[in-house]
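ok so for the tutorial part 2 we go from a plain amino acid sequence to predicted structure tokens. step 1 is just haveing the sequence, like this:
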Amino acid sequence: MGSLKDLGKSVERGGKALLRAGLAGLLPKPHPPEGPVEPSSVRRVLAVRHDSRLGNLLLLTPSLRLIKTAFPACRLEVMISDRYGDALAHNPCVDAILTARSLPGLRLRGYDLAFDFSPQHAFSLSSAVWTALSGAKRRIGFDRGDAARFLDDLVPVPAERAHETANLARLVRHAAPAAALPPDSELATEWRFGPGEREEGARTWKEWGLDRESVALFLGARAEKRLDPDWFLELGRRLVASGRKVVLTGGPAERELMKELALPAGILVAPELPLRRFATAISNARAVLTADTGPMHLAVALGTPTVELFSHTEPWRFGYAHRPGHLVLETPGRRPTVDEAWDALSDLLAKARG
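step 2 — the prediction. this is what the tokens look like for a chain of 354 residues:
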């Protein structure tokens, strides 16, 4: 049985290698860049993020602002998969949001620069192909895997630890070394509200029976990070006993589990909402407690204080303890206890009150 499994993996690897080689033969050949980019000549830029989960898009927002700062005359277009494009709505740095449906005519858009913003630790064939299909005069990305087959301006993978916003920003700093860009310590993820959205969020929060001292607990997470609903219920009881109201949020799977919970007074389950309506509501919370998930990045971008649970991912890369109003609770390889979470949340709320 083991030999058959190994054979299957070998065939899969071989198939992927043939696919990469075939695509590289069909796409425009990379050419070494000739000298630095002249900022005044850059009129159209494409930023590519194929794996566009919510957190990934929000982590990208500081780099989008850097691009607009470095190349102020450019039109900046962002190419993503179909999901979560609403996260970039009303962002003043984004002139257009594209998806795979735009691929057939992508080369005709006349890009001067294209950035492959897939993460530095793993080569993304899809992201590299999309970037190559742009036909941009210069295609920039991290130097790993088969990147050299598709991109022509490669940036070394950083050896030192850095937050993901700083890692992505390296690509922009590489393209514009002389630009007056803010340091990594000042990079901040962004969420922009449209007309009337803040007011709508405040109404939703009030309709749920919550006030500005209420706390949101997000249950959703991948399997290794997931906590039992009873864990959140116990934490919610403690918050209610301290005089606060609690809203439990999560994805469809968590919402099904929460249906079976006997909720005490002061604790409610948030209904399913579209992304932007969810964001406007959660922006009214006094604090959010969540694992390392998209809603964690959302809460930070909204400016809502967070307790961030890290058990299986790197807080130095994805957490926000370096920013005021955010606290990381790290328990490597194990789930946190309710006592640990309560202490962290109490500390955060005390600081927010101060």
